[in-house]
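Human: Respectfully, please carefully check these tokens:
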Amino acid sequence: MCLAAIMSRLLIVANRLPISVSRVDGDLHVERSPGGLATGLSGPHSKSDALWIGWPGDVQDLTAEETASLERRLDELRATPVWIPPDDMKEFYEGFSNGALWPLFHHLLDQMPLHVHGWEAYERANRLFADEVCRQYNDGDLIWVHDYQLMLLPEMLRDRIPDARIGFFLHIPFPASEIFRTIAHREKLLQGVLGADLVGFHTAGYMRSFSSSLLRVLGISSNVDRVYHDQREVRLGVFPMGVDTEKFARLGDSPAVRARAAELRGMDDCAIMLGIDRLDYTKGIRRRLLAYEKFLYDHPELHGRVRLTQVAVPSRTSVEAYQDFRNEVDASIGRINGAFGTPEWAPIYYLYRGIDEVELCALYRAADVLLVTPVRDGMNLVAKEFVASRTDDGGVLVLSEFAGAASELAEAVMMNPFDVDRASQVFYRALTLPADERLERMRALRRRVLSYDVHHWVRLYLESLEGDTARTDHAVPATTLVEKLAELSGVMRAADDLLLILGYDGTLVPFASAPNLSKPDQALLDLLLRLAARDHTEIHLVSGSSRDVIEQRFGGIPIHLHAEYGFWEKPDGAATWEGGQVPVQEWRDQVLQILENFTARTPGSLIEEKTISVAWHYRMAEPEFAAFQANELTLHLSQLLSNEPVEIVTDDKLIEVRQTGVNKGIVVPRLLAQSPKGAVVVAMGDDRNDEELFDALGSEGITIHVGGGTSNADVRLPNIEAARRLLASLLD
């Protein structure tokens, strides 16, 4: 599919512009950045009037004339700056983004500060990005947000441009849910990302970790690659990023690179093991050095015949943790060279600086073995650059199993960077691989890397974002929803008589961890009191909870109460509850025994006994294990009770066995018979039990579904707050 055909315009939003701005001899100097993201998106950025929105760099004390001149120059390059105050930038970037999120997402909790700071600056920076995107946005544009610095941005944009097509891609690992749950503001970070239509990851493992965190933190279940949230279907996808293979192959074959590689090879008669990394504690450099030191101890016959060339590109030099890490690396290299080096041979050549592309490709071409050994890495494009540049089919790639690239590059020699002894053995194996095996491995790697380059990554992601499947068939565009709610509120306000049938848990209040903890807040009680005092308005609260719970919660409010799905009823002003005849329940004791058994084996679950039903709640249990137990319990009960006058109802973190024929729909005939002729009847609920009420009401009233999930209701509201706002609109 042609890229220009699938979109009108692309807005690329990343922390940094693909352009570096600096002062040279007092003058502003603008040049393109060589980074992987800038390179990967250069194609779509150059087409279809695409725009790149990001921070222009640390350019302070600009005069008004310099600012205008810089913005004109950036505009020519289709780049739009987001100006962030220097103090906020420091807190946003070095504080929360790289001080907290970076180590957390790489599973390095020991690098987390004792007190995480910078959250307020993180929010402000994301809001400044949202302001600029909204200024630039035209109807039909695609918005592609990149990386962990901007996790709040998708939701901010969704709130302000409800119908926009928004993508988010995470370029670093997503941590296991047990790790992610340690961060403050975890709920806001997840909700921020869920503002997107499509959330992309490098590997399926990262996507699974994200889904697990949604379940454990927000209680949102995913269906493999789809999440239903706020009336929208959010797609999750795996899109492994590639490199510009054509450029690296061309460079690798260029005369300049070939000559420089020959020069590097001819320095001495040593095999070259190569490491090229940003000087970052996630890259496994210190463990690599320890493994190399062990390798030298174990193989004295290779002294003088092998050397490690380690390039460390300076990174985040103003951050104290990185300064300490550099000192540790320097000390390790000094110790190894001091212990093994001779006047003629140094076991490690160390370069602490950036290198240009010619020097980089020359090192790739000269190396016998490339060591890519991070302790955790989102993808690691160095491994793919090495493979792309080896048009001679030479060299061996040693790859950490904790790099995202390991899920693709199966022909690399895999290693565990945490096992220093085994790593040293892997180094020796890679150096001594038979020639035919080296050739076979590299040719297989090249086929894969060349087939799935960075342009394939961009095309695949944007086609998925643009595709019709990125939205749910049930979703109501937010602009339409606002118009529909305004119309509905007008109908309700204009009614001569209004009958409101309201659910409780999940409709007017959030679910609590246990049924007895679901208490109404004062704002809801005040709202119900004011509605009850409204002329010609009758309110019926219909809940699955027991009458004792409902009485305790709402006994002092002048409204009609219905407990246990309408089996019990207490009209406004009545002193006692009225109910039907309690049937004989021969099944009850046996079901209770089974539920007690499952409760004992499922920590965090509990049993709720009611007059005509027994319920098993597992909201507080470990989500994945509890879901497995719930499936087992449902199957067991279905077989046991197949001939009993009961039905098994499964709902959100709940399995309930209740008497057949008892559901919220039973209140409808009574209420319609009692209501004034011509009354407007409005029913509002959130779950399967409320769908039974909606079905019973049929065309006799207006039905409103609150929250996610499937529903046949006339109107869908995204959340509890929207439900309360609609009710409050009747009082204006």
Remarks:
- The chain has 26 helices and 28 strands.
- The domain at 478-581+662-731 is CATH 3.40.50.1000 (Rossmann fold).
